User: What shape does this take?
Amino acid sequence: MAILLLLNQVDPAILEGHLKSHPDCPDVRTYPDTGNVEEIDCVIVWKHDQGLLNEYPNLKLIASYGAGVENILSDPTLPEGVPITRFVDKSLSDQMAEFILAAILNHRVNLTYYREQQAACHWQEKPAIKGNNVTILGLGELGTTAAKLLHKNDYKISGWARSEKNIDGITSYYGENQLFQSVAEADFVVCLLPLTPETREILNSDLFAAMKKGSYLINVGRGDHVNEDDLMNYLSQEHLSGALLDVFSTEPLPRDHPFWQHPKIHVTPHISSPTDKAKLARQILDNYNRLSKGEPLLHLIDRKRSY
Ligand code: NDP
Assistant: This one.
């Protein structure tokens, strides 16, 4: 049997190398060189071209290259009943937490501002931002790790999720009714939600209006969490002081997109927490072996919840 790599915007050769370094790895193929499609029992997927998932009659596992699975669930050819797993790893959570802390500190102490002043040879002080209330939308694997790191650094943390949480030092908000309340006091709002029908464009004018004047948005979830026009409006009205965006509806962000030149938007190229390919390879092969032994799979997603 064989594993097929259905990967866009990442180099499949690196993952292939890591998979093949394991003695128990089956044959690995890279789309479109699928060989006999009946031999494919596992696909590893990232930003794949939609419409390919029903071409493998013996498919037993669909594994996401990353933590998100929205591109798999939106494929109209997704076969019923095939388990879908995602990448969950301490490295992913730790990198994300560090990135969020860095983004907050960068904004608080005006590092980007000083870099711009330097370009114009300006010697100009600007007071650091005092507020240290942070709300994290999404308190799952990544959100919880980020909340704990920020809490350790003396930030006052609230989080919002579907279900109530009991995490030391973190105020828990949950459910649709508590969304606006969760962001009302925040100086920084971080989106770490999965992209689902319920969370698409959750970062919209209603949410921005509920945020404090002068607050800062960090979106490291998915680009489609943001209503772009609403964000531009709330930035130009100076209700929001700025935004760091790591993820976009179209990636790479098109050259003519207004976010590139916007003075209050900090663009990073979907790098807040890259997948560690060696760890991903090990995790997928572990699940592949579990599958063959009939053991429970790790990091399964729930199709009904969409994450
Ligand atoms: P998890 O599935 O572990 O956590 C998701 C969290 O979101 C949970 O707390 C869940 O609530 C909450 N949630 C989901 N739907 C809703 C809803 N409708 N209302 C309220 N809360 C909701 O995911 P991860 O933490 O592992 O990853 C989160 C996302 O981060 C990924 O889906 C991906 O999009 C993004 N990501 C971005 C990366 C980047 O480089 N920019 C890298 C990796 C991930 P509950 O706990 O109650 O279930």
Remarks:
- The two ends are 28 Å apart (CA to CA).
- The chain has a mean pLDDT of 98.
